[in-house]
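Example A, followed by Example B.
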Amino acid sequence: MIIEHVGVVGAGQMGNGIAQVCAVAGLKVSLCDQSQEAIDRGMATIKASLKRMQAKEKITAEQVASALGRIETSTSTESLAQVDMAIEAATEVEAIKQAIFKDLDRICQPLAILATNTSSISITRIAAVTERPGKVIGMHFMNPVPMMKLVEVIRALQTDDEVFDRVTGMAKQLGKVPVDVKDAPGFVANRVLLPMINEAVFTLYEGLASAEEIDTVMKLGMGHPMGPLALADLIGLDTCLSIMEVLHDGFSDSKYRPCPLLKQMVDAGYLGRKSGRGFFQYS
C-alpha cells in the first residue's frame, strides 16, 4: 500500500509543519483540529512559511499553489476515513493521545498506519489501546518541521517490520533523515536535550546568571545556534515540563526532576513564544 493520502490530527506548530512538508512532497493532506480557529491559524502559518520559502527561491509560486491545493481541512476526525496514514500531533498528554488513537482506530480504513508525533510518550502503550497495534508507530519530527531534517522513527514493541519500512521510506520522500530509535522515555532527542534545558533552568533558578547570559554561554562557548532557554520558549514550557515528567516517572531517577522554576512558569501561564512570555518576552 503506497502512502499517498496523509491525515494530520492537530493544526498547531507541529501539525501544520507536518501538513506542509507532506503537501510540498506531493501527498494529499487532510488536516483536522477541534476548532475552526485552530485550523485557520494553522493554515495561515503554512501560507506564511511557503511564502518565505518562495521569497528565498527554495520553491516556486506554482509549487506553493500546488501544495496549498493538496491540503483539505476539517474539524472532525471522521474526515480521515480514507487516509493511508494518520499522524497525530496533539498535546503531549498520554490520555489525550490514547483517546485520539482509539478514535482513529475506529475511523481509519483497516490498512491505514497510525503514527504519533509524541516527543517522549511510550509508543507501545499508545499502540496497546488500538485493534491494530502492528500498524502503530512513532514519527517524531523536529521543530520547525519544514526546516529540520531529523525524524526519529520509533517502533512500538508491536510494530510490524513492514510498517517501519514504509514509514522510513515516506520520511525520505519528505526530504527527511529517518533514524531508527527504540521505544524508551524521551527516545534519543529529548532524553539528551530536555535534561540540558532543565539544567539551564536550574542555573537561572539558583541565580548563577541571567537568562541572556546563560544562553550566551551556550551559544558562544558550545556553538549552539540557539540558547537552551530560548529553545525552551520555542518548544513551549508546558511541553518541556511534560517531557521532564515523562522522564522522571519513566526512569524513577532524581536526575530528571523538573526544576521548580519550570513548574512555576507553567503555572503562571508563561509558556514561551506561544503565550508571548517565557524566559524572554515576545511581542
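Example B, a separate protein, is given below in the same form.
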Amino acid sequence: MPLIAGMSVLLGCQFLGEILVHGLQLPVPGPVVGMVVLLVGLMINGRVPTGLRTSGEGLLRYLTLLFVPAGVGIMVHFDLIKADFWPIIVTLVVSTALTLAVTAKVMAWLTRSMPRDPRDEWREERP
C-alpha cells in the first residue's frame, strides 16, 4: 500500500505541475514544475514519507532503462548527427565547462556564506 501512495504523490505532483504550466502559460515543462511542487511539499513536511521513498528508490533502480530509447534514437539518426558532429561537440564542451564554472562559483559562495563550526578550528590544531 505505501508503494501505491508514494507513486500517487509523484504522479499528483507531476499533474499539478502540468496544470500550473498550462494555466500560467509558463515556458517550463510540467514535470519540472511538478518536481518543484514536490520539493516544496517535502520541505514543509520535513521528511520523506516511507511510501514516497520506496517509490523513488524503485524508479531509480531502473533509471538506466530510460536511456535505451535515446540510444536507439542516436543509432537511427546517426547520419543527421554525423552531418552536425562538430557543432554538437562544441556545444557539449562549452555547456559542460560553463556548468562546471557556475557550480564552482555557487559552491564557493555557499561555503563562504556558511557559518564556521568552532569545532573545525580545534580539529585543525590537533597534531
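On Example B: The first helix runs from residue 2 to 24.
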